[in-house]
## 1
Amino acid sequence: MSNLNELSQLLKEIEDQLADCMKCGMCQAVCPVFTETGDEGDVARGKIFLLERLGDQLLHDAKGAKKRIEKCLLCGTCGANCPSGVKIIEIFLKARAALTTYVGLSPVKQIIFRGMLKHPKRFTGLVDLASKFQGLGISKANIDQGTCCSKMMSGLIGDRHFKPLAKKPLHKICPELDTAPGKSGIKVAFYPGCVVDKMNPEIGEAALKVFAHHGVGVFMPANQACCGIPALASGDKQTFENLLDHNISRFSNAEFDYIITPCATCSSTIKEIWPMMAGGQDSKHYPAIKMLSEKTMDISQFLVDVLKVTPVQGGGKAAKQVTYHDPCHLGKSLGVYSQPRTLVQANPDCELVEMNEADYCCGNGGSFNLQNYDLSCEIGMRKRNNIVATGADIVATSCPACMMQMTDMLSQNNDTIRVKHVIELYADSME
Amino acid sequence: MISKTVIDEFKTIVGENNVMTNEVDRQNYAYDAAVLEPVIPAAVVRPSAGEEIGRIVKICNDNLIPVTVRGAGTNLTGGTIPLEDGIVLLTNRMNKVLELNEEDMYVRVEPGVVTAKLAAQVAAKGLFYPPDPGSQAVSTIAGNVAENAGGLRGLKYGVTKDYVMGIEFYNAEGNLVTGGSKTVKCATGYNLTGLMTASEGTLGIFSEITLKLVPPPKASKAMMAIYDSVEAATETVAAIIAAKIVPCTLEFLDNFTINAVEDFSKVGLPRDAKALLLIEVDGHPAEVEEDAQRVEDICKDRGAGRIQVAQNEAEKTKIWEARRTALTALARLKPTLILEDATVPRSKIPAMVAGIEVLAKKYDIPIGTFGHAGDGNLHPTILTDKRDKAEIHKVEQCVSDLFDIALKLDGTLSGEHGIGIAKAGFMVNEVGQSSIDFSRTMKKSIDPNSILNPGKIIGR
């Protein structure tokens, strides 16, 4: 670390955005972290104040401030409700990059992001290898949820209940694809995202089945890279830019009408974060980023808005009650609320029952869960209680990260409610 | 600097995790929603029970450590900005509703209960807690009482002070003091409840508050009236009051605010309208029908160009959208927003609005005026950028003139935000030196070491 002047310079970029915050404090009403802790430093107003003070060189503990700034789910609830329209997510991502440049990236994160994630082939190879050995030291936690836990690794992952890595990841089931449009006349690029590829390939298979059913041509290049949000959330802009470059090289030269992802976080990252963080309109990649961002769509949005999937009336009482959780990155970030619900209702065996606070964050927040597991669980339990109160058989959502969190919470409580992606439910209706 | 011994004593009382002393944590309690310089406290302490408040205050008194109480920190006059050598006493761990008594229609709460949450809990029992300050989604009850917060319903239902039946607070020595009662009537002793309301943490620290509840109105009707002159709108307000009708809300938006709202939310307001009134009457269904008709007639009679009466809940929500988004819409125009609340007797609203227009021209500063015309409490909202020192100087002059205008019209410096630090210097203009001396004498005898939020309201 060098002097505070350097950090102040790095924060200049967001100076005007910070000034837009009028410190009204209304973010306290909606922040899931503040709701649990009641601490001003956990809410957007508090974090913005710290950044202003760092910018003015009136706060000396940059490391302490960094820790505070990073204690945030990046759920965007505050931004969506901010009376002044402060661009909070943009501020926080840019601030994390500036603080990481100044304080440095932790050695563990250097290995994860720059040693692995940055190199998609190496990353995939390592995960494939890990999936072969993962039986060692893990035991079954909950049969209904299909989860495991690990005493051996508890130092690293705590008492989490998690789904094991897929025995056969999506890239092994279907390494690449380039099919012509069928009856729909539409061709999409399919971006499954890391979690679907490596942990929930069944979601990817369901998506491919649905595309085939609707006569949609699919372009799915091999060797796709992470969307970059984990690196960016940790302030590692360098890795983010490398991943961006890699994905641009995979996708920008092909012909397709839309990029479809079954991951809310990937969707909002490509649509909103890529153009926001890619160095502005002067960057060499801007035209490609703009094109990719404009073409990106959540899978339920595509099916309902483009392919006109509509709810169907089941004969008699539906076999299963399904409640839906709105992922923050789909609802609050992209305004997609009704389409995933329509998809649930497009399965005649499913009846939609709304839960209380359906769009309240599940508490996962990516690396937030790793760094603040207890707090993440407190927020997750609120979601779990709302899910259980519906009496539904299935909780559906549109984001594999939310699925991971809800599975952990339900599993820890020995609940039998199953966690599904909406595309799985829709695919089930087309036997 | 507070000694380690004292910090350790605080930790013994409230637990290690509820005493914050590191730089980052302390910085986060240096400000509130007022446009004023932050002051970093020496420590932040979070008690969970009244008895803990008493012990903390006693230690502060013995060690001459100033105490500034904070709920949600939404204060607009700097009342929650602490002192450098003092502590912030954070009340939001004390957020329980202790008793909701439907039979006797009162609710007993801890200080840190959030206003909107309380109102919702009360409503769920079929009762009504009317005060609805703009920050109710986050503000705490004790903060509302300490500032005598108002809201949109002041005209008919009154403000926070009209609902405080009883209080418990800790004095500067850390002893428990009670005032008021659970009874509708109470003539026992000094009216400490009244004294403590609006005392801004300078006389004692609340540990429990008993609030009056009322039955909710059975029906309501809302309408919007659009005017092509400000005078016609403000005269309508005076005429409604003169006709002995008391709407539950009677809000005003000027042309500047109308355009800001239209830019922001495109609700279809006419951009050339000079003013807009939003009026809601409530009560018994028959009375509501009759009052609504009379209000509509008065609006027409006073020259409203268009009147829109909400026929259902959806239309009512749409009508109120303009008022709900007013502050948000204005906030987006400039980085800094200064929300004033100087208030005049309601009949003086036309003169007050005219005066604000003159000031906006004189100082060449954008001012959007909206607010509670029915109770004389307008919110002239000054848009600026606090980083522009020259303009801020101009804004200060403008605010000072604004206060002069309100006082000349027999008004008051603050209708609902309190005095805090921001208006302390202007107090003498309204109440005179002997009133300030009286208040200081009282403060000195109650808080001889001046540890309770010193500097607020009456200066030092």
Note: Chain A is about 50% helix and 10% strand.
## 2
Amino acid sequence: MSIMGTRVVRVEDPRLLTTGAVYTEDLRDPRLTGALHLTFVRAPMAHARILSIQTADALAFPGVVAVLTAADLGMEPMPPAMPMFTQTMTTSLLATDTVRFVGDAVAVVVTETAYQGQDAADHVHVEYDHLPALIDLREAASDAVLLYPQAGTNTVFAMGPAELDPELFAGCEVVVTQEIVNQRVAAAPLEGRAAAATIEDGRLIMWVSTQAAQDAKGAICRWLGIEPETLRVITPDVGGGFGAKIGADPDHAVVGAVARHLGRPVRWTETRSENMVAMTHGRGQLNTVTIGGKRDGTVLAYRLEILQDAGAQPRIGAVLPALTTLMAPAVYAFPKVEVKARSVVTTTTPTAAYRGAGRPEATHAIERGLDLFAAEIGMDPGEVRRTNLLPAFTEPHTTATGAVYDTGDYAVALDKALAASDYPALRAEQERRRAAGEEKLLGIGLSVYVEITGQAPASEIADVELRPDGSARVLTGTSPHGQGHATAWAMLVSEETGVPMDRITVEHGDTDLIPVGGGTFGSRSLQQGGAAVRQATRELVELARQRAADLLEANPDDIVVDTARAGVHVAGSPDAGVSFAELAAKEPLQVHTTFTSPGPTFPFGAHVAVVEVDVRTGKARLERLIAVDDAGTILNPLLAEGQRHGGYAQGVAQALIEEVRYDPEGNPETSTLATYPFLGITDVPSFEPVDMATPTPYNTLGAKGVGEAGTIGATPAVHNAVIDAVAHLGVRHIDMPTTPMRVWSALRAAEAAS
Amino acid sequence: MIPAPFSYVRADSVDHVLSLLVEHGDEAKVLAGGQSLLPILKMRLARPEVVVDISRLSELAYVRVEGDEVAIGAATRHREVVDSADLQRDVPLLPYVASLVGDRQVRHRGTFGGSLVHGDPAADLPAAVLALGATFVIQGPAGRREVPAPEFFQDYFQTAVGEDELLLEIRVPRVPGVGWAYEKFTRRANDWAIVAVAAVDNRVALANMSMTPMRAVAVEAALAGGASAAQAAQAAAEGTSPVTDMHADEEYRGHLARVLTERALVTAAGR
Amino acid sequence: MQVTTTVNGEARTDEVEDRLLLVHYLRDVRGLRATNVGCDTTSCGACTVLLDGESVKSCTVLAVQADGREVSTVEGLAAADGTLHPVQAAFRQEHGLQCGFCTPGMVMACVSLLKDNPRPTEHEVRDGLEGNFCRCTGYHNIVRAVLVASGQDPK
């Protein structure tokens, strides 16, 4: 019986549940014996010139080996890596003359123990000359205060038409417009950032908690100005990433720089307080949505104006509006779509990818916008969506912004979600509570989404070897950090070969072993890495058949796979066979292959959220989340559902409670897990996933990506639900997170207006 | 993060604690369950030279019925307050409120007295003991004194316990059969209260509406004057001076105080 | 100062710095590195271990406070023959873990919860685990795992 599509429990788990994983901090590699501990000294203010750095007091502390600054390490400002960014916005790994956000790295203290590092770091005295903070995005866009004076602008990146089309909404009976905040949030993986480094035979060896070792290597080489052959990056177990651990951060490169400078092994694990200000944040868009159409619900034109908060340094966050732009047309057949985007720097933590990375923003903008449009014309949100959905398609569909959707059937997704939630009954219960004047109001929110997964890189490698001892070894360029690749890739190999899953090992994340690899992000792993593993396995089986044909003196076409013996035999003669192990004993049986997808895939779905809002206090609570997520054919429902659940929670968190906040001087207000409202177990119900599977033709697995579906679908559904709960009281919009005070304030404003 | 260096001393008696406090003055901190103190030390918001551990003083960990009162030793853990049959019977507000402090792990370590001495105006137990009209027994070099709850909470994170003194015991009146309620409004379940209201009969206390927990005097007066719960609750924000933070501004806190007071009074009346 | 502790049944005496946190004692002195540190503020519960049978956050206990006490970590949970403890087995069966970082603390918090409440409702499970954060699972399968570990059908 095939194991494809079945709930196979994870091979990873026994280790994680007993001895625990080996994260970077847990490493006791002999090459790290005697490793020194590195503690960063970070800017305590948002924007300042550095006048001096006094290290003498810190150096006098016990265990201090060195206190190093940019000057000591020869660090110079460098232009941003992405060529589309304003190249005069130069930064160095440790600040040279200016700090631009609370958490900006200024110096490092190197000590024998971690405890000593914190003691000494408190005594590195940095003299600062305050400069104005820049928190507000519109103020940043005005260029009144410049973060990089030599650039002459705060704009890192811009795209879209130079001028907005004045005729875009011509002929529309109704035009609604709304400024919508897609607030900054923290990825907050439970394991923060960490790295270790040593010098071995003149090469730098680094262990990095990353989602992509090969990307990390590339970035660190660039920052340190070293040749690729002089750096090896190894990925230990990784305690979550959610986009914020793609590649490497400058801080990781500093760890490498210190190891090279001192010629000794060093290690660094950030504290949570450090993580909350120095690991990149996600989202951070201010979007202006304008929708025009007819009173029958037909949308004729949609405009999205994006202002992205890049934070203090040009990093991945600045380019995410390109993804928001690409996905702006969403699941709809809008005749006209116009998107204009701009990313600006502010005196805040740099932004980068966070689960969805640019696509949740697109979905959120249109799904919130459509509810506003529905409210304006007095139509049910479900009906408005149905009116405008693209019809089902199996041939690629090209959108107004140039995305080529592979397959989709959005109306069915919506119908399934509405049916599973018993939407009419929910509306009836909502009406009953309103009529009865109950304090706990019901809100129902919808979203229909399509996202892009596996966008880049389009290729992934796999290397599969069947060994004489009957085991198999898989090398993958993807990089698991909780997704269960070891289980999924073993399923793929076992299915084709009959090698038992517990005899299959999966290795990843060592750039010496796997020089080329794309890593794990953008929901790419199964559809590219998994597809590569299947391709390699099939090529390997083909190779085995050839060899077996010679051995068994048969025609290769007559050799069939015999999974029961983990080998092959001559068709019709099960006794005339040979195992892969036997073949491997004669000659290594190994295939290295590259799978290239013809294009990205476009998973889709529909979510229905049900919230309860206390009309007196404004507190909203999620009661139900019914979610249809179509990610093509599912390899292992256990793993796919796990990805969905996790995404839902993070999506719900953004709608209801999570937000990174700064005061007007740029001081973070949410720099610990006591102040950042990390979603807890009592904040969410059990979820109600609904299955739907429309295969993609782009890989033999039929798989699309599923890792980010949850955040993309859930946030707008929950957000819409909160507003829906109080819409009858005159509330039109409330920004996220819909905290009790925000809801209460909106209710009060609506009351005053009526 | 980790604390700055300090010397740890495990006290073997109350006298030992007091002698250490006299010797080290404001350089010493008393450690009981550590669930408030250790986070402060780790964030280096305090850097005592000496930490005096009282958590093994069994003479400070008890719940005892004494006449019209229940006496609770200062080092009694939250868990023991939650589980106390005497309190459940005679002062049911306290086990309920203690069950809302922190989370299970915190309640396994944190102490009743420690939470009160910490003097956090957003904490749960201070408002509860204020509504109950508790008495605090404090020991110092000059001997033992008793302080009524309204005088115990003196300012923001500041109580009547002096640097050379130790809180020994909290005495609360037995109120079996008396209506009670605790309405806690939080962002997440285990967060500190944005606002909370404790009600015992017609006595009402507010958490996080001032620099200290406080009695809602105007509400109590209105109730004494015959006002309904809803009417009396309208006075809940009178005389308060709540902070404005990222969760709530002053106006919203005032509104919450009114809503929660009404709910607390209604619940208390129904018990 | 000196601390004598019994960790997962093994008694030992060590000389430690007074300020050493229990979690660092377990990790760095005892070499038991399954227990993780996820925050600075007693918020996340990743460091949860049992102290004399009760769950505590070992980042908020001094090593010296564990003197003379028994500490249990996830490393000591499975049987000597490797058989998983029912909570561990249920976490695997229900996919109650992904990256694994919260897992050792989460499992120990569950063991403590079930000791006090052997057949909790879903609400009681969530209430009882409010001190433990997970970023991967959305808590959905953790709740299921606890129900399964307590012999209940999570549906």
Note: The interface with chain B takes residues 114-115, 118-119, 122, 271, 273, 616-617, 619, 657, 661, 669-670, 672, 674, 677, 679-680, 682-683, 739-741, 744-745 of chain A (CB under 8 Å).
